[in-house]
Design a protein that fits this description.
Elements lengths: L3 H17 L5 H24 L8 H12 L6 E3 L4 H9 L1 E4 L2 E6 L2 E7 L4 H5 L6 E5 L2 E2 L5 H8 L6 E8 L2 E8 L1 E4 L3 E2 L2 E2 L5 E2 L1 E3 L4 E6 L6 H14 L4 E5 L8 H11 L4 E7 L3 E6 L11 E5 L6 H11 L4 E4 L7 E8 L4 E11 L24 E2 L4 H12 L14 H17 L5
Parallel strand pairs: 14-15, 15-18, 18-19, 19-22
Antiparallel strand pairs: 1-21, 2-9, 3-4, 5-6, 5-7, 7-8, 10-14, 11-12, 13-14, 16-17, 16-21, 20-21
Helix pairs in contact: 1-2, 8-9
């Protein structure tokens, strides 16, 4: 007799442990077996009669993917052969075109192209829907499948078809080794060191945070403390194209600027709600603060912008954010060889807002963070500014002049805040 049924019985036990929290007792086992018996039956049929042999695990991987695809766009399965690529992507260093993807409705959509990355320089924008990769339609592919197709050896190219405002656009994008430092400055000195001043004379600092990865706040605090020692009078935190990361890092950033009260409340199935509160230790109280956001600002970026907005602690400038208000955990399975990314909670901002964009929502619905100062920017302006930023150094001219009305508006907002808090203000 084939060993296939025993493979599926093991899978059923894994599934039960994942979703029920423990190995089921006898009565529960019987119920689980009845529920998943069709999987064993189909697997047996396929391995007996399918036209060609299949790799062990192919159907198991497919079954798990199908199961998780029924949940929500951000839950998914990472098979054993995908784990290394997944790990590199989440540490900020991998080879590909440099985009963060998500699902909007049924469409695999660009949440944010990485600044200075090949996708942004080729013209990819937040909100572009992925239609095909190398002429292969993505309708029947998962989010993780598409990410895998976009990754590849440096020096190769990928032909990408996207839909923007209902019109197809075809782009050829080179794959490169992509590194994403979590914290960047306004410009580089000739020796390559970052300068964190947007306006040195007015003592206005600038910090760009590209992702809320592990250790980001250590880097951010080092920069912030240097600016405070240098008599900074106002600060711009640029979260544009920051698609998120660790929720705990976002909570820590809000806590740095808020003395008390609610930062965030998460609501999950097993534990109910959990509220994160601000503490007084280490708080930077009176520094005028502006947060820059756009349509590529999602998840943890929206926590920071929304919480600081609710506390009236910062002026939010830019465009409406993406609208991702759920929390995912990554759970290792199969003795750590594979993993499940599972949505485990949604969150509420201090004022009670839930910013998640539901399928079918339009601009009149409540979702995302709406800036205090709304400043639209064209795709051409965005691409030109990214090219300018990538080679901007102190004392030299960028290849292209800076065209960034959002940053200009942020500088104006900081200056207004400095003026209103100045002791010399009438």
């Amino acid at each position: 007799m084939s060993r296939r049924p025993s493979v599926w019985i093991c899978l059923v036990l894994i599934i039960a442990a994942m979703f029920y929290g423990l190995t089921p007792m006898a009565a529960e086992q019987d119920s689980v077996y009845r529920t998943y018996a069709p999987l064993i039956e189909v697997d047996t049929l396929v391995h007996r009669h399918y036209v060609r042999p299949l790799r062990d695990g192919t159907l198991v991987d497919g079954a798990i993917r199908g199961m998780l695809s029924e949940l929500d766009p951000y839950s998914g399965y990472v098979a054993s052969h995908e784990m290394e690529s997944f790990r590199r992507r989440n540490t900020g260093e991998f080879t590909g075109i440099g985009v963060e993807l998500g699902l909007v409705g049924a469409s695999i959509t660009v949440i944010a192209p990485f600044e200075h990355g090949p996708a942004m320089l080729a013209g990819i924008e937040s909100g572009d829907e992925i239609v095909a990769v190398d002429a292969r339609p993505v309708d029947d592919l998962s989010l993780f499948d598409v990410e895998g197709l976009l990754d590849g050896p440096p020096g190769t190219q990928v032909n990408l078809t996207v839909r923007r405002s209902g019109k197809p656009i075809e782009l050829t994008i080179p794959r490169e080794r992509v590194q994403r430092p979590a914290v960047e400055g306004f410009a580089r000195e000739e020796n390559g060191r970052w300068v964190y001043w947007a306006d040195t004379a007015a003592r206005i600092g600038y910090v760009r945070v590209s992702q809320f990865g592990r250790g980001m706040m250590d880097d951010f605090d080092r920069v912030l403390n240097d600016l405070l020692r240098s008599d900074v009078r106002g600060l711009i935190i640029d979260l544009r194209f920051n698609a998120g990361g660790l929720m705990t890092q976002a909570v820590a950033m809000v806590d740095r600027f808020v003395t008390s009260g609610v930062i965030l409340t998460t609501v999950n199935r097993s534990e109910g709600s959990h509220t994160y509160l601000a503490g007084d230790a280490g708080t930077v109280r009176d520094l005028p603060l502006v947060i820059l956001v756009n349509a590529g600002s999602a998840s943890s970026s929206e926590i920071v912008a929304g919480a600081l907005q609710d506390h009236h602690r910062a002026v939010i400038v830019g465009e409406r954010t993406f609208g991702k208000g759920t929390v995912q955990d990554f759970i290792h399975v199969q003795d750590g060889r594979a993993g499940v990314r599972l949505t485990v909670a949604h969150y509420q901002l201090p004022g009670g807002r839930m910013i998640h964009k539901q399928p079918g929502a339009d601009d009149s619905d409540s979702w995302g963070i709406i800036p205090d100062r709304l400043v639209p920017i064209t795709g051409d302006q965005r691409a030109r500014n990214s090219r300018s930023r990538s080679d901007r150094t102190i004392g030299s001219d960028a290849a292209e002049p800076r065209i960034d009305p959002q940053l200009d508006a942020a500088l104006s907002a900081v200056r207004d805040s400095i003026s209103s808090t100045s002791p010399n203000t009438p």
